[in-house]
Amino acid sequence: MADTYLQVIFWALFAMMGIAGIRVVTTRNVVHAALYLVATLLGAASIYILLYAEFVAWVQVLVYVGAVVVLMLFGLMLTKAPIGSANFDNNQRLIAAVCAGLLFAVTSFIMVEAFEGQEIDLPALRAQTFGVSARPSSRSTCCLLRSFPCCYSPRWSAPS
User: Could you list the residue range(s) of the whole structural domain that residue 148 is in?
Assistant: First the structure.
């Protein structure tokens, strides 16, 4: 029964990430695109949590959502870039759509051929990818927490 709930949550996250990912590239407002990117990255972090990789999920949130997207938004605000519905359109939409479709078809064909007839065992995939327990994640968390005081220690003194 628990696997059914996990599958329902996975497919809901998959749909949310797919819609947000499509909206990232189709919206005309740059700020809205950044917010859709946040939704996509948070969905990826949620999928890591479903795979019992909490450390990787928090790294995803801190690095991508917390740093990259905020940096992008601050860059937009500080450079006074046109925010809103500016006309950035050109006549290469058809070529871009054809290239994206071809890329999707080729990668889908490669994935289907590589895993032809195999059934994916999620617990085995978790064990292979992230280890059999949460201890590797806990150890790396402790190592990172131990390194934080080193980041703030003075390495050099200002010339007097």
Answer: 92-152
